[in-house]
Design brief:
3 domains; six-stranded mixed sheet; binds manganese (II) ion; alpha/beta; Purple Acid Phosphatase, chain A, domain 2; seven-stranded mixed sheet
Length: 388
């Protein structure tokens, strides 16, 4: 079976809304031509409650998929088209609320494989797809364990995730709470992961990250080709299919005792080179680092020259000059935030212990605590209905 694997399309992403639709659609429609089924690895939409316009635009793209006479059949309901998906972290809503992937499933545009084992047939071949929709990274390990996902005998088994994975993070990113490849349930023939926005593979081709189809984070790792993957279950090999995307240039400029004109000139040079290099209005992100000449302050910097380029590129300049003290401030905020995070974990731990003492065993007390903080009325409703 030839399976197209498409990552984060982020339909409706505000900053580059048109790109999100045109580039996502290009991947989906190319997959429609080339593959026998499609897997979407989460963050199809950019938000958990997309606008009507975004839903409308997305439905228009998915509607085309219904035109094909798909040979691959969904075993539970052969009238459905073989598009499997999970929700990503951007689409995650609390239990009981309808997320946009569940909405598309209700509209028969796809099959939601979150916590669900779905079997797809192509003649004699059976492919079983199981998924875990995106959860906050600190809950990933427990949620994965609680689902107890196991491959099914006599089939080609695929697990679809949408998480940060320790082995694929960059230097400087915090990895201690992340799941690693070793935490994955054993025995699947193929692991697919969304969430990470550049194409990557691991486990000798058994772990595939297709990457996003649109630039959203303005990070250096988003400069590479964007596209999707076609995996062949017979040869157990895959191919990355690049799509036409808006070019993205990331540049870090470091200064030492710089004056204002130095900075402007270097910025202009970078911008003009990128405009020259790429024909169609590129995205340019410049990070200014280092320090200014003594006596000058960050506020003396005039970046109004940016306006001159507004028709030629999408320009983002981030000013981190003289940021020694600023950096310390950021570190402090980060520290507090991380502390908060661990307090949350700690809270889940105490909560779990208290419940245990009361004779209640929960697989994932963190998720219940999450629901309690996110949507307390829902839990209260549930308790009330049990009291009645
Ligand atoms: Mn994403």
């Amino acid at each position: 079976m030839k399976i197209a694997i498409i990552g984060d399309t982020h339909f409706g992403y505000k900053r580059f809304q048109e790109d999100s639709f045109s580039q996502g659609a290009e991947s989906i429609l190319s997959a429609y031509e080339k593959a026998e089924m499609i897997i979407l690895a989460g963050d199809i939409f950019d938000t958990k409650i997309p606008t009507m316009e975004t839903i409308g635009e997305t439905v228009t793209i998915f509607e085309i998929l219904k035109n094909k006479d798909w040979e691959v059949k969904y075993s539970n309901d052969i009238s459905k088209i073989p598009i499997a998906a999970i929700h990503g972290t951007h689409e995650r809503r609390t239990k009981g609320s309808l997320n946009p992937i569940q909405l598309l499933a209700k509209m028969n545009y796809l099959i939601d494989v979150d916590n669900n084992c779905s079997i797809f047939d192509l003649n004699e071949e059976k492919v079983c797809i199981q998924g875990m929709g995106g959860v906050p990274d600190e809950f990933a390990k427990n949620t994965l364990r609680a689902l107890e996902l196991k491959p099914k005998e006599g089939m080609f088994n695929i697990l679809v995730l949408h998480q940060s994975i320790k082995e694929f993070m960059y230097i400087g990113e915090k990895t201690s709470s992340l799941i690693s490849l070793n935490d994955l349930p054993q025995g699947f023939d193929l692991y697919i992961n969304g969430h990470i926005h550049d194409y990557k593979t691991g486990l000798e081709g058994k772990f595939i990250i297709p990457g996003s189809t649109v630039v959203t984070q303005l990070k250096p790792n988003e400069q590479g080709d964007k596209g999707y993957v076609i995996y062949d279950t017979n040869t157990k090999t895959h191919e990355f299919i690049p799509i036409k995307t808006r070019n993205f240039k990331f540049k870090e400029l470091t200064f030492e005792e710089a004056n204002i004109t130095d900075i402007e000139n270097k910025c202009r040079k970078t911008i003009e080179e990128a405009i020259q290099q790429y024909k169609e209005k590129p995205i340019i992100k410049i990070n200014l680092k280092g320090n200014l000449k003594k006596g000058l302050e960050t506020k003396d910097l005039d970046l109004s020259f940016q306006k001159e380029y507004k028709d030629k590129c999408f320009l983002f300049i981030s000013n981190e000059l003289n940021s020694e003290s600023l950096k310390q401030k950021i570190d402090k905020i980060r520290e507090i935030r991380e502390e908060k995070k661990s307090i949350k974990d700690f809270g889940a731990l105490i909560f779990g212990e208290k419940l245990k003492n009361a004779g209640i065993e929960l697989n994932n007390p963190g998720a219940v605590l999450d629901e309690l903080t996110d949507k307390p009325e829902q839990i209260i409703e549930r308790i009330k209905s049990q009291e009645d």
